[in-house]
Hints:
single chain; alpha/beta; Ubiquitin-like (UB roll); 3 domains; 12 strands
Amino acid sequence: xxxxxxxxxxxxxxxxxxxxxxxxxxxxxxxxxxxxxxxxxxxxxxxxxxxxxxxxxxxxxxxxxxxxxxxxxxxxxxxxxxxxxxxxxxxxxxxxxxxxxxxxxxxxxxxxxxxxxxxxxxxxxxxxxxxxxxxxxxxxxxxxxxxxxxxxxxxxxxxxxxxxxxxxxxxxxxxxxxxxxxxxxxxxxxxxxxxxxxxxxxxxxxxxxxxxxxxxxxxxxxxxxxxxxxxxxxxxxxxxxxxxxxxxxxxxxx
Length: 254
């Protein structure tokens, strides 16, 4: 047999075999790319408040360990269902679940951020989030936020502070205080009665500030700033027991 013919016969069998092996490797690689290799969790908006962690989210992903996800084909993983389970966590504001080109499941969760704590004398305390939502307290972490009290909050517990105009108005005032470095450092507690009338208890001085309703709160805070800047340094920080800001263009001190 001629050498060229021998080479031709050999190649006739070798080339299909090589193509077959390459095809198997390619299919195997494609199958591997379809598997969930790793779960990568990112939690945003914590800002020093650690109410949820990666373990809490992983418990929702795996249904407390009953369902494995890693090494499972993505075709068998319902990303939308996982997203909804994560968003069911009270301290999760929103979540996105998706996959990347490397075969990882990516979870981006946004934590709800509390801005005040409601003292509830007949039950559990609650937080109010920066979106007006009512959040439960956590055994794991306590946020350093202003305290709210009074009968005003009873209709809103387990609901949302934004369900009516009175709640919205008070929320806007609370949010303003929380964002202002000076006032957030001054106020320890807001006591709000059923009619929405507010008494403020300061962090340092002993005066009860009779603030009244949230109407014209910018003007009232301006008067209170005058009280802090002009009156207290001159008369003494604990000379007065009550400061009334409810009357226009007046600061009444007792």
